[in-house]
């Protein structure tokens, strides 16, 4: 049952524990199963957090803040989250924000500049980027001068 849960994708210890509980496995048995899987190297929250953070950052272009929230929901310890997010540098985060904004900007050619600013700001805020990065991206796209 626990191995089947790991087949679709890697899971955190917290996710696996929740999965086992929904299947009616008692808490102490679930803990023992997870301990054995950790010993076998099949469950590793640090590696899971690093892989999750890189995947979400590279493919979904979301900020470190959103990734941290997702990992917390999955039951990953804060130390593993911090370690995973340290591997995403600030330039890479800015580049992701810029790529998203540029892609959005290219789809809005006939709109007023104020609408460009508003829509790009909203997009980047939904993806979890902070005010500083958003302002920097808008300046680079030359949208704050209008």
UniProtKB/TrEMBL annotation:
<protein>
    <recommendedName>
        <fullName>Regulatory protein RecX</fullName>
    </recommendedName>
</protein>
<dbReference type="Pfam" id="PF02631">
    <property type="entry name" value="RecX_HTH2"/>
</dbReference>
<feature type="domain" description="RecX third three-helical">
    <location>
        <begin position="92"/>
        <end position="138"/>
    </location>
</feature>
<dbReference type="GO" id="GO:0006282">
    <property type="term" value="P:regulation of DNA repair"/>
</dbReference>
<comment type="function">
    <text>Modulates RecA activity.</text>
</comment>
<dbReference type="Pfam" id="PF21981">
    <property type="entry name" value="RecX_HTH3"/>
</dbReference>
<feature type="domain" description="RecX second three-helical">
    <location>
        <begin position="44"/>
        <end position="85"/>
    </location>
</feature>
<dbReference type="GO" id="GO:0005737">
    <property type="term" value="C:cytoplasm"/>
</dbReference>
<dbReference type="InterPro" id="IPR036388">
    <property type="entry name" value="WH-like_DNA-bd_sf"/>
</dbReference>
<dbReference type="InterPro" id="IPR003783">
    <property type="entry name" value="Regulatory_RecX"/>
</dbReference>
<dbReference type="InterPro" id="IPR053925">
    <property type="entry name" value="RecX_HTH_3rd"/>
</dbReference>
<dbReference type="InterPro" id="IPR053924">
    <property type="entry name" value="RecX_HTH_2nd"/>
</dbReference>
<comment type="similarity">
    <text>Belongs to the RecX family.</text>
</comment>
<keyword id="KW-0963">Cytoplasm</keyword>
